[in-house]
Amino acid sequence: MLKFELICFITVVCARYVNSGSPVDELKSTIQSKLLSTGIDCIKEYPLSLSDIKAFKEKRIPNNKDAKCFAACLFKKIGIMDDMGKLNAEKAKESAKQAFKNEEHTKKTEDIINSCAEVNEQTTSDGNKGCERAKLAFECLKKNAPMHGFDFDI
């Protein structure tokens, strides 16, 4: 049952990931399928409770290890966080180039990541794992993405 609810949650997140009418509308299905498959892979390693899923729906990251590590797993798999648990603008740009055929969209992705680079300087308790930093990055991305035309309302 929880797996079904997670799939529904990820589908809703993906469906609302991009502003309606935004320049990246045509990429919704690509983003949806990537996030769905990645989310399913990550939840196997870092299970989420129903309250965790509800918190993510409300654009909050739960303050527990599995939720933070789930976010780190997603960030690593989609290419915005490196294996050392740091946000990586260069990897994000490479991932964006694969997803977006438009240089403007790639630049926006890089700008969002660059605007959150300060999270790499903050001390975290889990080192290279990246779970604590993923929480910091989540909050920063949530704050900065709308300024660049990305909508995270779910």
UniProtKB/TrEMBL annotation:
Pfam family, one: PBP_GOBP
SUPFAM superfamilies: Insect pheromone/odorant-binding proteins
The keyword S-adenosyl-L-methionine appears for this protein: no
InterPro entries: PBP/GOBP, PBP_GOBP_sf
Keywords linked to the UniProt accession: Signal
Superkingdom of the source species: Eukaryota
Signal peptide limits: 1-20
PANTHER family associated with the record: ODORANT BINDING PROTEIN-RELATED (PTHR11857)
UniProt name for this protein: Uncharacterized protein
